[in-house]
Amino acid sequence: MPKLFLASGIFHPEPGGPATYLRSILPALQESGWDPRVQTYGNDPLATAYPYPVTRIRRQNLFLRYTRYALSARRHLAWADLVYAQTIDLPLWGAQRLPRVIKIVGDQAWERCVRKGWIPPEISVDDFQRFTGDARVRWQKRARTRQIRAMDAVIVPSQYLKHLVISWGVELAKIHVIHNALSPPKAPSQSRAEIRRELGWPDRPTLITAARLQPWKGIDHLINAVSDMPALRLIIAGDGPDRGRLEHLARPLGDRVVFTGQLASNELHRLMVAADGLALYSGYEGLSHTLLESLRLGTPVLASDKGGNSEIVKQGVNGVLVPYIDLASLRRGIEQLMERREEYASNCRSGLERFSFQRMVGETDALLKSLL
Predict the structure, then answer these.
(1) Exposed (0-12), middle (13-18) or buried (19+): which is 243, by Cβ within 10 Å?
(2) CA–CA separation, 288 and 307 (whole Å)
(3) Is 187 among the domain residues?
């Protein structure tokens, strides 16, 4: 039984793409014959049993957590046959002796530069590739590229990310597009109307967005659009560093904008089913789990035309694609989504076979085994 060491920065029960991905795929990889171990940053969770070992390194100061991650990883590396990293910048000293795979779901150098304020806020991830910046920015780019080029294989979930990684000088033969997928979310037993009554929602159009509250998620633009659409309510599900600014922006709209905070997946799915549509107006997406979840639940979507969104949303079929940033187009897109809601809802699952869970597991399993 081949031994697989999965190195990550986050893991269940924390929110986020890598945590969701690992939680869903690991049992299936075990069924395919893998013996996995996970290491992640994070404090001890609630009592949760996993059918594989999970090592958590506490988030203390940078030096301590980095050193402890590296020392703990050495034990797993001595045991493993293969390393599958979920992000860059993990201290995996000595991993060079093993086959190494990394999953890239975005440009972490750009994300860090945005968070640190090292680049102007209007610099998109696509603009960033041509942006020179100062020494800190150039160092982040070089470090990102050096780490990814050293891998034996790179998994990306969309064609958009494939082209992004190619632009960093990574060999084409190393890059493998394996679309994201999730175990199909369990639909609530109640109807949409029953859930709305139970939640006490008024009989008016309701749009939901679900995301980590970061500046590039475009939630401020959704709030601005809703301010000019008095019949519309906006539910914002999620938490993150941008929440305070967004709540201040939404305050004049009163109860037309509701912040739920972080929700358990079953409660989020109830809200998705209850809503008239889901919006993901971000300036940057690799391939969105949120869009896939919404469509599988039968809720049509509005998305920006950025990143991998156009690989999921079929314009005028299961939802609406809107230019980013264009508030007039965003308002028209929301109006179109509401007017044609039932038509789009009937087509939500069209084409989702490309994102089947079985396909993702099979392609991942085959790639990993090819490197042994």
Answers:
(1) middle
(2) 9
(3) no
| C-alpha dihedral sign at 70, 72, 74, 76 | negative
Same-domain pairing of 233 and 327: yes
Inside any domain, residue 363: yes
Q: Is residue 301 part of a domain?
A: yes
Give domain status of residue 238, yes or no: yes
Residues 285 and 144 in one domain: no
Q: What are 99's two structure tokens?
A: 């086959």
How far, in Å, are 248, 275, 312 from residue 193 at the CA level?
A: 31, 10, 27
Containing domain of residue 92, as a range?
Answer: 3-182+356-370
d(CA 319, CA 272): 14
- Domain of 137: which CATH number? 3.40.50.2000
Do 87 and 221 share a domain, yes or no? no
pLDDT tens track of the chain, all 372 residues? 999 999 999 998 887 778 889 999 999 999 999 999 999 999 866 657 899 999 999 998 888 999 999 999 999 999 999 999 999 999 999 889 999 999 999 999 999 999 999 999 889 999 999 999 999 999 999 999 999 999 999 999 999 999 999 999 999 999 999 999 866 777 788 888 899 999 999 999 999 999 999 999 999 999 999 999 999 999 999 999 999 999 999 999 999 999 999 998 899 999 999 999 999 999 989 999 899 999 999 999 999 999 999 999 999 999 999 999 999 999 999 999 999 999 999 999 988 988 999 999 999 999 999 999
End-to-end CA distance of the chain: 12
Pair 18, 41 in one domain: yes
204 and 65: one domain? no
Q: Please indicate, yes or no, whether residues 161 and 123 belong to a single structural domain of this protein.
A: yes
pTM over 0.70: yes
Whether 350 and 361 share a structural domain: no
Helix ranges (H only) for 100-255 are 108-116, 125-128, 135-149, 159-166, 192-199, 219-227, 243-250
